[in-house]
Structure formats: C-alpha cells, structure tokens
Design a protein that fits this description.
With 235 residues, the protein is an alpha+beta fold. The protein has one domain (3-234): 4-Layer Sandwich (Phosphatase 2c, domain 1). It is 33% helix and 32% strand. It has seven helices and twelve strands. A hairpin with a 2-residue loop joins strand 4 (109-115) and strand 5. Helix 2 (49-66) packs across helix 4. The radius of gyration is 17 Å and the shape is globular. The N and C termini lie close together (8 Å).
Length: 235
C-alpha cells in the first residue's frame, strides 16, 4: 500500500503575542516498507522543549521503523516501554552533550506506523490519534494527561511508560490516519462527550490538504496554543 503524508503547523496566539518560537514538531519517515508519522508538543514551561520535541519525533520514527517486525510480536506494554526507553536515551545523550537538564527537553509524543496491513500506534500525553474508515471518522486514542488534567505526561516524566498508551490493529476500511496536538483538539474535540465535534468530522473527512490550512488560518485567533496536525492517507 502507498501512503501520502501531509502536515500543518500554526504558532499559537500566545506565542505570537510574546514573540516565542513554536514548540510543536512533526516528522515522517518511509523506509523498509514502513510508513511512519509522529508529532510532539513541547512543554510550554521548558526552555528547550522545541528541541526535545524534534528529537523525540525523529527518534521514535527511527526506532519503530527499524524494529517494526520485532515490535509487532510484542505486547502493547512492551512496545510502549521500548519506545519510551529509546526516546529518553536520546534526550539524555543530548542533555549531557549540551550541558542542560533533560527535563528542559520535555514534550508529549504521538506516533503511528503502518506496514502492509499492520498498524502500530503510541500516545503519550494530550492530543489525539484518529482515523477515517470509509465515511466515518474515529478516535483511536483520546487525549489523556496522566495523573490529572493539570499534569501532562511527558517524555521526561518519571516512570513514563506507565502513562504511554499503545495499540496494534489491522487495516480494514481505513483510508486516512491523523495525529493532532492539543492546540487543535481544543476546538475540534468535545471533552465532555469524548468525541469529535461535527465541524471536525466534516473537516477530517474532506480534502484535508486544502481544508486544514484554511481552517487553521480562519480560526487562528482561537488557537491560543501551538497547533499541529500530521496525516497519512492512501493514494
């Protein structure tokens, strides 16, 4: 199966007003028959979280693409532990090299990889992972901060694998997958009902490459946090 990938990132209104850099990062990789996408949202209070987010998405894509076959045979718990371990190892190496605290590199992390008809996904922190099956949009992994809504689980959180959610599934009628950060879910996800808004359903089932950038520009004033989405759809 062939997949095409697209993404859109907008700096949040607060970051625009304070002249701060965007802390979201996305990444894609296609190698060894694996198509992989990842997204990370750098922790706003950490000085180097933009760097940490970029390191996290790259490392996660590399390790899952290189070891997809082995991971597919493992339990979901072991998959989560492996990805968490690989990412924190990369972050610690960078922190040691640069002389900074690893906590300054903290971010959330979402990943989805496809090989033939097999799908692996990983989710740490808020944001969400979803898909489109025929004409229906579904959520594969809902936003979940961790201990409580005020403390988001991050790549540098102690015992991070406890908070990581992973999943395996087979492709059926899926034509599109997408990952999005909490900046975008703030207006596309109904937290009370734990579902997409009607507006989100129309948007995510449409011509996403054209509609997403237009939508994010129109609603820019309501996107207080950095907002990003990366999607993968069958050609």
């Amino acid at each position: 199966m062939n997949w095409t990938v697209g993404n859109c990132i907008k700096k949040g209104r607060i970051h625009e007003e304070r002249n701060l850099i965007c802390q979201d990062s996305v990444y894609e990789m296609k190698t060894q028959g694996v198509s992989c996408i990842a997204l990370a949202d750098g922790a706003g209070s950490r000085k180097l979280s933009d760097v940490g987010a970029e390191l996290a998405v790259r490392q996660a894509c590399y390790c899952v693409s290189d070891h997809f076959e082995q991971l597919w045979k493992e339990t979901e718990k072991k998959i989560g532990y492996y990805i968490c371990s690989e990412v924190i190892y990369r972050l610690r190496n960078y922190a040691e090299k640069m002389g900074c605290q690893v906590e300054e590199l903290a971010s959330t992390l979402l990943l989805l990889a496809v090989k033939d008809t097999r799908v692996l996904f990983y989710h740490l922190g808020d944001g969400l992972i979803g898909c489109q099956e025929r004409d229906e949009v579904k959520i594969l992994s809902h936003p979940w901060n961790g201990r409580d809504e005020w403390h988001t689980a991050l790549t540098t959180t102690k015992e991070v694998s406890y908070y990581a959610r992973t999943g395996k599934r087979r492709l059926d009628q899926t034509v599109r997958f997408f990952l999005m950060s909490d900046g975008l879910t703030s207006i596309l996800y109904n937290r009370r009902r734990h579902c997409f808004t009607k507006q989100a359903e129309r948007l995510l089932k449409g011509k996403i490459k054209q509609q997403i950038p237009n939508f994010m520009e129109v609603y820019r004033s309501k996107l207080y946090d950095d907002s990003s989405i990366i999607w993968m759809e069958q050609i």
